[in-house]
Design a protein that fits this description.
The chain is an all-alpha fold. The chain has helices at 2-33, 42-62, 66-93, 100-116, 122-134, 139-167, 169-174, 176-200, 204-207, 211-216, 221-232, 238-265, 273-287, 298-307, 314-341, 349-354. 79% of the residues lie in helices and 0% in strands. The radius of gyration is 22 Å and the shape is globular.
């Protein structure tokens, strides 16, 4: 029940923000063409807004040059490839030996489910189960690789965002909304670091009276213990952590280059390269908060808020966000092919949840 309620809230956030954005942008486009829009009856006004507005957005989409959009798709492909290599390194630390080609297919299946399932971790569960199924059911270790993979991806993104904000601090400080986003991102980073450190600190369970006893009463305590131990084991592999950190920088770099290509394809000239590399890490950091479906709504609102500050039209910023999402979606949809191919390997959901 709680899970369904959480999914419902996330859907509501995405739909609510998108509806608010589209209505606001479409209304401005309608006012530009119908000066007396506010004097019309509300029903006729609504028809005008949702007739003129979508056409204006469609006109922006039609402006995109196919070559630039294909380059954006290629950049998103590099994001997928680099992300697969990173997870492959993570798996090997746990003794989970799978061919890189197979890791790539499982990763795409996970990406597909993370995109189209309402739950925030549906794809992660699929990835962990496939790996556990093919490596003697080492589910705790498989889950650990997915967790650490996510944590490294987020932490590197946060560091990039903070580094860019510090590099352009005078610009950030003079912009009140941007300064607010900076402080929010900083708080999010610190909170994530503290929670991660506490989770992986061996003596933490003994610091609070009775905590270990409470944990031991959990129905899956042994699996939880193995999973935490597996996560901690990465500390003894500094070279792997260094490699995964470096390739994660490449992941986020290609992701941002994809949006630069989309902007070029849309003919956006007011946004400079430095604007993309300042705004996008902040946008992606905020969109990573699991309060909406795949960041939808939150991400689009951030694009409009940020890029409108450097002269990008609201329809242009919205189109840039959506086209970037579509470029990534191309690769996520490939997961369907691998899922259909290997679907017979999947057990009932109950077995996936209890496999150790």
């Amino acid at each position: 029940m709680k899970r369904h309620l959480g999914n419902l809230v996330r859907v509501g956030v995405s739909v609510g923000i998108l509806l608010y954005l589209f209505t606001g942008i479409f209304r401005k486009e309608a006012v530009a063409q119908v000066s007396e829009l506010d004097r019309l009856p509300w029903a006729e006004r609504l028809v005008k807004i949702w007739t003129i507005g979508p056409q204006a957005l469609a006109d922006v989409f039609h402006q995109v040059e196919p070559v630039w959009f294909l380059l954006a798709i290629a950049c998103m492909g590099m994001v997928t490839i680099c992300g697969t290599i990173r997870w492959y390194w993570m798996l090997r630390v746990q003794g989970l030996e799978l061919p890189l080609k197979r890791v790539f297919s499982i990763n795409l299946i996970g990406m597909f489910f993370n995109t189209f399932m309402l739950g925030a971790t549906g794809g992660d569960v699929m990835k962990a189960w496939y790996v556990a199924h093919e490596t003697h059911h080492k589910k705790a270790e498989a889950v650990a690789t997915v967790i650490v993979d996510r944590v490294i991806g987020l932490l590197v993104l946060f560091v990039i965002a903070l580094a860019m904000m510090l590099a352009f601090w005078s610009r950030v400080y003079d912009d009140a909304p941007l300064r607010t986003f900076t402080l929010f991102t900083l708080a999010f980073v610190l909170g994530t670091v503290v929670l991660t450190a506490l989770s992986f600190w061996k003596g933490f369970a003994d610091c609070l009276p009775g905590l270990r006893q409470q944990l031991q009463r959990l129905p899956k305590y042994e699996m939880l213990r193995r999973m935490i131990e597996a996560c901690r084991s990465y500390a003894s592999h500094p070279m792997v952590l260094a490699k995964t950190t470096a390739i994660t920088v490449a992941v986020h770099g290609f992701s941002m280059l994809a949006i630069v290509c989309v902007g070029k394809g849309l003919g956006i000239t007011s946004a400079r390269l430095v604007d993309y590399f300042l705004y996008l890490p902040i946008i992606n950091s905020i969109a990573a908060i699991p309060i909406s479906i795949s960041g939808l709504g939150v991400r689009e609102g951030m694009y409009v808020t940020m890029f409108s500050r450097v002269g990008v039209s609201e329809p242009g910023a919205l189109a840039m966000s959506l086209l970037g999402y579509f470029a990534n979606l191309v690769w996520n949809l490939l997961g369907v092919v691998f899922y259909i191919t290997h679907r017979k390997e999947l057990p009932p959901v109950e077995e996936m949840q209890t496999t150790k």
